[in-house]
Structure formats: structure tokens, C-alpha cells
Design brief:
About 45% of the residues lie in helices and about 20% in strands. By secondary structure, it is an alpha/beta fold. The protein has a domain at about 50-100. The protein has a five-stranded parallel sheet with strand order 3-2-1-4-5, sandwiched between helices. Strand 1 (about 15-20), helix 1 (about 25-40) and strand 2 (about 45-50) form a beta-alpha-beta unit. Helix 1 (about 25-40) crosses helix 3 and helix 4 crosses helix 6. The longest helix is centred in the middle third of the chain and has 24 residues, at about 65-85.
């Protein structure tokens, strides 16, 4: 509160937001939510796409190249979707794409960037209720606040 007894709005909040985006509906909603939060709080948004490594791509000739081309197409579409969902372009942001385990990559990016919050979409896969989704693993790590968007 200020000395006059009124609240100050917009001075606190996240300064660095990491959002995991994989192309699913829930991750696109998470990206749009993260964009809006970044816009309202003046935060920097780091959108992260993690392309899972597939052992099958190394077993077939040209498999790695085909996987890379597909991944590049997905990333281009995700960039377009994220910016379209934002409606406005007045957010400091970057888009990273890496290969690996989604939890490991998101955790590393969040640690490296000193993220104030990590935002991901809820998993729609039934098996994740038993073995743990990326969102559950991030929450259990307990190193950052995690918002899971349905």
C-alpha cells in the first residue's frame, strides 16, 4: 500500500516467463496465457519447443533429416500460432527449440534464465496420470511456480 492507503497495481509480478509449447491445444492455450501475462506484467517471455529425440530416426536412412524438417515445420507453425494468439506484438520474447526430454530442457531453460514462472499445458494423455506428465514433474521439482493451463 502507498502512504495514502491505496494499492499499487502493476509493479510486482514475473519478470521472466518460460512457456513450454509442443503444438497441442493445451500448450497453445498455455502460450497465449503466457503471452498475456508477459504483456500485462512487462515480463520477458521465453517460448520453448522441445522436439523429442527418436531412436527410430537414426535407424532409417534420411530419418534424422526427415525428423529435422518436420520439427522445423512444427516450429514455424508454432511461432505463427503464438503470435496470432497474442493479438499484439508488444512483448519482449524469444523462441527456442531444442531436442531432448521436455522436462529436462524446460527445467534447464528455466534455471538458466532465472524464470519467475513456468507455464505449460495440461497433458491430454491418459498414461500421464500414472507415470507423471511434464507438468507434474515440473511442479514436483519445486524450483519455480508452475502454472498448468487446461
Amino acid at each position: 500500500m502507498t502512504s495514502e492507503g491505496s494499492f499499487e497495481y502493476g509493479i510486482d509480478g514475473p519478470k521472466v516467463i518460460v512457456a513450454g509449447i509442443d503444438g497441442s491445444d493445451t500448450s497453445l492455450r498455455a502460450g497465449a496465457y503466457a503471452w498475456g501475462l508477459a504483456r500485462r506484467s512487462g515480463a520477458r517471455l521465453i517460448a520453448v519447443h522441445v522436439a523429442p529425440m527418436s531412436s527410430l530416426s537414426t535407424l532409417t536412412p534420411g530419418g534424422a533429416a526427415a525428423m529435422r524438417e518436420t520439427s522445423d515445420q512444427i516450429v514455424a507453425e508454432l511461432r505463427d500460432e503464438l503470435q496470432a494468439a497474442s493479438g499484439r506484438q508488444d512483448v519482449r520474447h524469444s523462441f527456442r527449440t531444442e531436442q531432448g526430454d521436455p522436462y529436462t530442457v524446460l527445467a534447464r531453460v528455466a534455471d538458466e534464465s532465472r524464470a519467475d514462472v513456468v507455464i505449460v499445458g495440461a497433458s491430454a494423455q491418459a498414461g500421464h496420470r500414472f507415470i507423471g506428465s511434464v507438468a507434474v514433474r515440473l511442479v514436483r521439482a519445486g524450483r519455480w511456480p508452475v502454472t498448468v493451463v487446461p
